[in-house]
């Protein structure tokens, strides 16, 4: 029995027809389960390279079908991560403002048509289902927890006009106890506050990392005006009070401005308020139900600080947090719901790993990809890849590490990771500034051999398995000075324990580092820069390696370093425009306070996400039809050597921002072969 779960929007990658205001259509993904067991899953952002993609997960579906060796016609059931009534309401809302006669007002018919257009198969409507958004969150956690019984708390920003639920799971059944309306959304509560800290949607985790630098006391009473706690675990948030109050009280931070102590204290107060509300809800339902185990899902469940506080509180004997708690995880929940309804529920077993995405190509194919970059890369193959990588890191190198199948969810768990020595505090600063290109306060996570975790981390009770970076835990006092790169300002770390059985290649490289240094830990962060999702393919890995200051790259059995590429090497590359960018000429004020015609390259047809480019580069990019070799493009314009270098440099900066694509031309590939 094959069931396919979907999340995300309904547009193709180059479209913007279904941009429904205030809807939750983002984090597109596809998950394929056979008889309740996951066989393939990937987020669309990993494939179309649009962060938090709100597009139809076409590439994800294609991958899942390919991994199973089936056609869409062989899928028994397809499930979408929202109720049909909600989807129809969203369509009506959209078409009321922008009528489009080609779009049906029937969500099931629309999904049927979209799949038929892409895959040439018109599924019978009876094989397409819509499921409750928060029920999908709940099932994605409980079905993977291994618990026979537990309390379930699914909480996020919004979905199906709600923001969460509390339920009890028992066997294959989930019984709902309470739901929370959008007006009481804890996700929107958090989001509304961080707007005044210079952040927005999908930045919530950044504020979680900023909070330990602040003190909640100065704004505690202020934040108590924003929420009320009442009997029976009930609460209310006053979203309408937040903006007017903060505008009168604090200096609003604009994006890019430095953080003041005031901003840090507001972050701390926000985090404390969230924790108080969550504990208030769970204390009541723990007492009312007698449940000693807890499952968490929904975007708010990615708040690892809250999870850590729950862990140390002793309120529950065991806590399972769905590693893909955000909306992509609803694709998993949707697939499991319909699989259960068809008599194939998920086996009752604890989730151990989420390496469900695309695998690396064969060693031969990886080698050919590396050869095509001969002017930019040098590489060697080794059977001792873990030892050599550990040697690099012990010597101070920061490396990209790419092995096996990619992880499902927002965390790099050792297959698509940036790795480094966890000891020097300077590694944190260096990686933030020169590799990730992000705020300097942001912490990095440690990956520790499971059997050594308690020596370095103060873990509550008998817990020793934390494979998904879902909990902030305490670094032992005696180890904090040693682990300078991964110990946060408050003495904590977002921990990943690594099992030799679940992740043998990753365990091997950490163990090899231990043999050299005595430290069974590596700094682990996602392999990407600030402009892109986590890498998935070998090509993605090379692009990120060449556009960051990583010292080395390990892909499968290959050790890769950079060459000093010449201008000729750069101009031999082929250039193309991703389908999500567009070129524009507009009238705007320049730095000289004059209104002139300027050239912009925009992401996803958004006037807010753009980069200014020179007129020369604009004209050159408009000449591209599909893909063109840079040298050929430069030859279409009369340029001297200095101008060619300037334009090439400008283009490389756009590549770093992922606004253009650069890769070896087909001719270069043939030549290398």
UniProtKB/TrEMBL annotation:
It comes from Mesorhizobium sanjuanii. GO terms for molecular function: catalytic activity. Residues 390-562 form the Carbamoyltransferase C-terminal domain. Gene3D superfamilies: 3.30.420.40, Carbamoyltransferase, C-terminal domain (3.90.870.20). InterPro entries: ATPase_NBD (IPR043129), Carbam_trans_C (IPR031730), Carbam_trans_C_sf (IPR038152), Carbtransf_dom (IPR003696), NodU/CmcH_Carbamoyltrnsfr (IPR051338). It comes from the Bacteria. Belongs to the NodU/CmcH family. Residues 23-336 form the Carbamoyltransferase domain. This is Nodulation protein. It holds the Pfam family Carbam_trans_N. Signal peptide: none annotated.
């Amino acid at each position: 029995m094959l069931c396919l779960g979907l999340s995300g929007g309904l547009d193709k990658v180059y479209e913007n027809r279904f941009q429904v205001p205030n809807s939750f259509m983002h984090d597109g993904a596809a998950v394929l389960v056979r008889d309740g067991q996951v066989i393939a899953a990937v987020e669309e952002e990993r494939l179309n390279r649009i962060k938090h993609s709100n597009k139809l997960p076409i590439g994800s579906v294609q991958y899942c079908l390919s991994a199973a060796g089936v056609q869409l016609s062989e899928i028994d059931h397809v499930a979408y991560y929202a109720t049909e009534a909600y989807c129809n309401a969203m369509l009506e809302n959209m078409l009321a403002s922008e009528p489009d006669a080609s779009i049906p007002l029937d969500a099931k018919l629309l999904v049927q048509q979209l799949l038929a257009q892409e895959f040439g198969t018109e599924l019978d409507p009876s094989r397409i289902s819509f499921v409750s958004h928060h029920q999908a969150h709940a099932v994605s956690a409980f079905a993977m927890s291994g618990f026979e019984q537990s309390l379930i708390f699914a909480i996020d920003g919004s979905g199906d006009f709600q923001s969460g639920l509390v339920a009890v799971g028992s066997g294959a059944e989930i019984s709902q106890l309470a739901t929370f309306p959008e007006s009481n959304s804890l996700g929107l509560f958090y989001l509304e506050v961080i707007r005044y800290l210079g952040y927005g949607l999908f930045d919530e985790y950044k504020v979680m990392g900023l909070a330990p630098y602040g003190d909640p006391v100065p704004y505690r009473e202020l934040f108590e005006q924003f929420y009320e706690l009442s009997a029976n675990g009930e609460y209310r948030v006053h979203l309408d009070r937040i903006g007017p109050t903060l505008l009168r009280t604090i200096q609003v931070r604009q994006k890019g401005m430095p953080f003041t102590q005031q901003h840090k204290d507001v972050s701390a107060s926000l985090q404390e308020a969230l924790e108080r509300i969550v504990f208030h809800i769970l204390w009541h339902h723990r007492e009312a139900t007698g449940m000693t185990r807890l499952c968490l899902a929904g975007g708010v469940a990615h708040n690892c600080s809250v999870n850590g506080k729950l862990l140390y509180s002793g309120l529950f004997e065991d806590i399972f947090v769905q590693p893909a708690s955000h909306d992509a995880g609803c694709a998993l929940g949707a697939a499991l719901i319909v699989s259960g309804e068809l008599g194939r529920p998920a086996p009752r077993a604890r989730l151990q790993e989420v390496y469900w995405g695309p695998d690396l190509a064969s060693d031969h194919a990886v080698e050919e990809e590396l050869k095509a970059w001969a002017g930019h890369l040098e590489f060697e193959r080794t059977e001792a890849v873990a030892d050599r990588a550990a040697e690099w890191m012990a010597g101070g190198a920061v490396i990209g590490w790419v092995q096996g199948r990619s992880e499902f969810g927002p965390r790099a768990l050792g297959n698509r990771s940036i790795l480094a020595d966890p000891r020097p505090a300077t590694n944190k600063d260096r990686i933030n500034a020169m590799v990730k290109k992000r705020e300097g306060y942001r912490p990095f996570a440690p990956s520790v051999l499971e059997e050594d975790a308690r020596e370095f981390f103060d873990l509550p009770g008998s817990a020793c398995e934390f494979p998904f970076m879902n909990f902030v835990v305490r670094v032992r006092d005696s180890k904090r000075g040693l682990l300078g790169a991964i110990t946060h300002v408050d003495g904590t770390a977002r921990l990943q324990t690594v099992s030799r059985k679940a992740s043998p290649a990753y365990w091997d490289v950490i163990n090899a580092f231990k043999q050299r240094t005595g430290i069974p830990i590596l700094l682990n962060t996602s392999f990407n820069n600030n402009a892109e999702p986590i890498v998935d393919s070998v090509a993605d890995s090379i692009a990120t390696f060449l556009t960051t200051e990583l010292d080395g790259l390990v892909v499968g059995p290959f050790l890769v370093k950079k060459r000093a590429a010449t201008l000729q090497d750069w101009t031999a590359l082929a250039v193309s425009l991703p389908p999500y960018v567009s070129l524009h000429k507009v009238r705007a004020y320049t730095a000289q306070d004059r209104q002139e015609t300027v050239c912009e390259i925009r992401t996803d047809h958004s006037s807010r996400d753009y980069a200014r480019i020179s007129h020369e580069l604009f004209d050159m990019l408009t000449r591209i039809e599909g893909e063109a070799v840079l040298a050929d493009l430069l030859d279409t314009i009369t340029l001297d050597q200095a101008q060619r270098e300037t334009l090439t440099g400008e283009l490389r900066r756009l590549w770093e921002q992922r606004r253009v694509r650069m890769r070896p031309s087909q001719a270069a590939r043939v030549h290398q072969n």
